[in-house]
Amino acid sequence: MNIRLATQEDLIAIEACARAAYEPYVQHIGKEPAPMVADFENLIDQNAVYVLEDSTVAGFAVFYPEGDHMHLENVAVHPSHQGQGYGGALMAFVESRTREAGIIAIELYTHEKMTQNQNIYRHLGYHEVERRREAGFDRIYYRKVLP
Questions:
Q1: Which of 17, 34, 14 minimizes the C-alpha distance to 25?
Q2: Does domain 2-145 match CATH 2.60.120.200?
Q3: 83-111 residue pLDDT tens
Q4: Where do the H-state alpha helices sit in the chain?
Protein backbone atom coordinates (compact mmCIF):
# COMPACT_ATOMS: atom_id res chain seq x y z
CA MET A 1 0.00 0.00 0.00
CA ASN A 2 1.32 3.40 -1.00
CA ILE A 3 -0.23 6.86 -0.61
CA ARG A 4 1.03 9.54 -2.97
CA LEU A 5 0.05 12.84 -4.54
CA ALA A 6 -2.30 12.26 -7.47
CA THR A 7 -1.40 13.20 -11.03
CA GLN A 8 -3.62 13.78 -14.04
CA GLU A 9 -2.79 10.21 -15.12
CA ASP A 10 -4.85 9.08 -12.10
CA LEU A 11 -7.94 11.11 -13.08
CA ILE A 12 -9.95 8.32 -14.70
CA ALA A 13 -9.24 5.90 -11.83
CA ILE A 14 -10.17 8.53 -9.22
CA GLU A 15 -13.43 9.34 -10.98
CA ALA A 16 -14.26 5.63 -11.27
CA CYS A 17 -13.46 5.09 -7.58
CA ALA A 18 -15.70 8.01 -6.57
CA ARG A 19 -18.58 6.78 -8.71
CA ALA A 20 -18.32 3.22 -7.37
CA ALA A 21 -17.91 4.28 -3.72
CA TYR A 22 -20.82 6.73 -3.72
CA GLU A 23 -23.26 4.94 -6.06
CA PRO A 24 -25.03 3.17 -3.16
CA TYR A 25 -26.04 6.57 -1.73
CA VAL A 26 -27.79 7.88 -4.85
CA GLN A 27 -31.08 6.17 -3.99
CA HIS A 28 -30.98 7.35 -0.34
CA ILE A 29 -30.19 10.96 -1.22
CA GLY A 30 -32.26 11.16 -4.39
CA LYS A 31 -29.40 12.41 -6.54
CA GLU A 32 -25.68 11.94 -7.06
CA PRO A 33 -23.63 13.01 -4.02
CA ALA A 34 -21.21 15.86 -4.64
CA PRO A 35 -18.11 13.59 -4.81
CA MET A 36 -19.55 11.83 -7.85
CA VAL A 37 -19.47 15.05 -9.85
CA ALA A 38 -16.45 16.78 -8.28
CA ASP A 39 -13.92 18.57 -10.50
CA PHE A 40 -11.09 16.16 -9.78
CA GLU A 41 -9.01 17.52 -12.66
CA ASN A 42 -8.85 20.93 -10.97
CA LEU A 43 -8.35 19.42 -7.50
CA ILE A 44 -5.40 17.39 -8.80
CA ASP A 45 -3.90 20.56 -10.30
CA GLN A 46 -4.20 22.18 -6.85
CA ASN A 47 -2.26 19.28 -5.25
CA ALA A 48 -5.27 18.49 -3.07
CA VAL A 49 -5.74 14.82 -4.06
CA TYR A 50 -3.78 11.83 -2.77
CA VAL A 51 -4.29 8.29 -4.01
CA LEU A 52 -3.86 5.05 -2.15
CA GLU A 53 -2.43 2.38 -4.40
CA ASP A 54 -2.53 -1.37 -4.03
CA SER A 55 -1.60 -2.43 -7.57
CA THR A 56 -4.36 -0.03 -8.69
CA VAL A 57 -5.94 3.13 -7.26
CA ALA A 58 -7.84 1.61 -4.35
CA GLY A 59 -8.92 4.90 -2.78
CA PHE A 60 -8.21 8.58 -2.46
CA ALA A 61 -8.49 11.60 -0.20
CA VAL A 62 -9.06 15.25 -1.10
CA PHE A 63 -7.95 17.77 1.52
CA TYR A 64 -6.51 21.26 1.79
CA PRO A 65 -5.92 24.02 4.37
CA GLU A 66 -8.90 26.31 4.95
CA GLY A 67 -8.82 28.98 7.64
CA ASP A 68 -7.79 27.48 10.97
CA HIS A 69 -8.22 23.85 9.89
CA MET A 70 -7.56 21.24 7.24
CA HIS A 71 -10.70 20.70 5.18
CA LEU A 72 -11.22 17.04 4.32
CA GLU A 73 -13.36 17.33 1.22
CA ASN A 74 -13.58 13.67 0.35
CA VAL A 75 -12.23 10.26 1.29
CA ALA A 76 -13.27 7.18 -0.66
CA VAL A 77 -12.25 3.57 -1.06
CA HIS A 78 -13.33 1.54 -4.08
CA PRO A 79 -15.88 -1.11 -3.00
CA SER A 80 -13.56 -3.89 -4.24
CA HIS A 81 -10.97 -2.74 -1.68
CA GLN A 82 -13.23 -1.91 1.27
CA GLY A 83 -12.79 -3.77 4.54
CA GLN A 84 -8.99 -3.88 4.24
CA GLY A 85 -8.16 -0.86 6.41
CA TYR A 86 -7.62 1.52 3.51
CA GLY A 87 -10.13 4.07 4.75
CA GLY A 88 -8.39 4.15 8.11
CA ALA A 89 -5.01 4.47 6.41
CA LEU A 90 -6.26 7.45 4.39
CA MET A 91 -7.70 9.12 7.49
CA ALA A 92 -4.41 8.58 9.37
CA PHE A 93 -2.54 10.04 6.39
CA VAL A 94 -4.72 13.16 6.44
CA GLU A 95 -4.08 13.57 10.17
CA SER A 96 -0.33 13.16 9.65
CA ARG A 97 -0.25 15.74 6.85
CA THR A 98 -2.35 18.11 8.94
CA ARG A 99 0.13 17.91 11.82
CA GLU A 100 3.07 18.36 9.42
CA ALA A 101 1.41 21.55 8.16
CA GLY A 102 1.17 22.87 11.73
CA ILE A 103 -2.63 22.77 11.68
CA ILE A 104 -4.41 21.48 14.77
CA ALA A 105 -7.88 20.57 13.48
CA ILE A 106 -9.62 18.79 10.62
CA GLU A 107 -13.13 19.59 9.45
CA LEU A 108 -15.30 17.57 7.10
CA TYR A 109 -18.93 17.11 6.19
CA THR A 110 -21.16 14.27 5.14
CA HIS A 111 -24.74 13.97 4.02
CA GLU A 112 -27.20 13.43 6.85
CA LYS A 113 -28.39 10.21 5.19
CA MET A 114 -24.88 8.72 5.09
CA THR A 115 -25.25 7.26 8.57
CA GLN A 116 -22.42 4.73 8.19
CA ASN A 117 -19.98 7.60 7.55
CA GLN A 118 -21.28 9.44 10.61
CA ASN A 119 -20.56 6.42 12.80
CA ILE A 120 -17.03 6.15 11.40
CA TYR A 121 -16.27 9.83 11.98
CA ARG A 122 -17.55 9.73 15.56
CA HIS A 123 -15.48 6.58 16.20
CA LEU A 124 -12.40 8.44 14.91
CA GLY A 125 -12.95 11.31 17.36
CA TYR A 126 -14.84 13.81 15.21
CA HIS A 127 -17.59 15.87 16.85
CA GLU A 128 -20.62 17.34 15.13
CA VAL A 129 -20.40 21.13 14.98
CA GLU A 130 -23.14 22.15 12.57
CA ARG A 131 -25.94 21.06 10.26
CA ARG A 132 -26.97 23.03 7.23
CA ARG A 133 -28.50 22.75 3.78
CA GLU A 134 -25.86 23.61 1.22
CA ALA A 135 -25.70 23.16 -2.57
CA GLY A 136 -28.95 21.21 -2.35
CA PHE A 137 -27.62 18.74 0.24
CA ASP A 138 -28.42 18.33 3.93
CA ARG A 139 -24.93 18.24 5.43
CA ILE A 140 -23.52 17.53 8.86
CA TYR A 141 -20.19 19.19 9.64
CA TYR A 142 -17.67 17.52 11.92
CA ARG A 143 -14.44 18.74 13.53
CA LYS A 144 -11.56 16.96 15.20
CA VAL A 145 -8.91 18.76 17.17
CA LEU A 146 -5.72 16.73 16.89
CA PRO A 147 -3.97 15.67 20.09
A1: 34
A2: no
A3: 999 999 999 999 999 999 999 999 999 99
A4: 11-29, 40-45, 86-100, 115-123
